[in-house]
Specification:
single chain; alpha/beta; six-stranded mixed β-sheet; 11 helices; about 35% helix
């Protein structure tokens, strides 16, 4: 599957449905032991046997497809459970033995997944609105929670923040978050390596640099680039709790406004290039304009995981490692 389609499984299922092919969705509910795909991972199956996505990296897809085709015939969802012994695990894609529980839902009438619910979910995803599809696997009741309703549902809100599908109060909560975002300030050599790395890691990146000669299409082919001043550009991007911000310009006139704007946002990560001495001077400048100590403690500087990086590409790897650690573990630099 192309990179542009790999995260569009609900969209693909809806396309097949509208094309008259029929569609079913398979969703990982739970895993135990070593499983290559986390809860919430999905596989779309058409009535003609076409598939997109994955629930196990290939080790149980064949059985899931067979069950999905049967579900399209009888209109009933089902829950499948697969176990792989240690001695057979490597051959089917597991590092060691594990179990996977998978929900298979034909799209259509109750008790399957209602086509209108799938369309609502797809609409939320297209508008880049965080959404959750809840399923009660005892009676097949379903709910879609998105937009303003998320704030009033603590179980959904917490899972959206953690980007973690799973069971809460008897409901399976399938999370559908918009892409993570990375705002890179400073069109330097590190940025040339960092932007494609970020995209591979699932981020939607944007490059900010008011210097058009630096932030040019020739130096960053295919990238989204803005030449507004950093604080204006960051305000336009509206960074949220799924956004990381990195300042790389190494020029206080460019970096400092970006840092101040980032500190006013809910960005989960704000990293700044520069040595320990450079960062100490940066802190003094920010204190002089009234930035508080709690806000200053949010800065990750010197930027990146301490892996001994030297080249621009290695520094980009270190930055992505630290961003990932902050996202997945919530570990603040001290």
């Amino acid at each position: 599957m192309s990179a542009s389609r790999k995260d569009q499984i609900p969209e693909i299922a809806l396309e097949w449905l509208h094309a008259g092919k029929g569609a079913a969705l398979a969703t990982v509910l739970e895993t135990w032991g070593s499983a290559p795909r986390p809860a919430g991972s999905q596989l779309a199956i058409s009535g003609q046997g076409e598939i997109e996505g994955s629930v196990s990296g290939g080790c149980v897809e064949g059985a899931v497809v067979a069950e999905a085709l049967e579900a399209l015939q009888d209109g009933r969802p089902r829950i499948l459970e697969f176990g792989v012994a240690d001695e057979d695990a490597f051959a089917v894609g597991l590092a060691c033995g594990g179990r996977i529980k998978v929900l298979v839902e034909p799209v259509g009438d109750s008790p399957g997944l209602d086509a209108a619910d799938l369309a609502r979910l797809v609409d939320a995803r297209r508008s880049k609105t965080a959404a959750a599809l809840l399923v009660d696997i005892e009676n097949w009741e379903r709910r879609i929670v998105s937009g303003g309703a998320v704030a009033g549902n603590s179980a959904v809100r917490d899972r959206i923040r953690a980007d973690s599908s799973g069971f809460t109060n008897g409901w399976f909560v399938g999370i559908h978050n918009p892409p993570l975002r990375l705002i890179v300030v400073g069109a330097v050599h590190i940025a040339q390596a960092l932007l494609p790395m970020a995209r591979l890691a699932g981020y939607d990146p944007v490059l900010i640099d008011p210097r058009e000669a630096f932030g040019s299409e020739s130096r960053f082919p295919g990238e989204r680039i803005t030449h507004f001043w950093p604080d204006e550009a960051i305000a336009e991007e509206k960074p949220d709790s799924r956004t990381a911000i990195v300042t790389l310009a190494h020029d206080p006139k460019i970096d400092d406004p970006a840092i101040s704007a980032g500190l006013r946002s809910d960005a989960f990560y704000l990293g700044c290039l520069g040595s320990t001495r450079t960062h100490a001077k940066r802190l003094e400048r920010l204190r002089s304009v009234g930035v508080s100590e709690p806000d200053l403690s949010r800065l990750h500087a010197p930027i990146g995981a301490d892996i001994g990086a030297r080249s621009p590409a290695e520094i980009a790897i270190a930055i992505m490692a630290e961003i990932t650690e902050r996202l997945r573990k919530g570990i603040a630099r001290t």
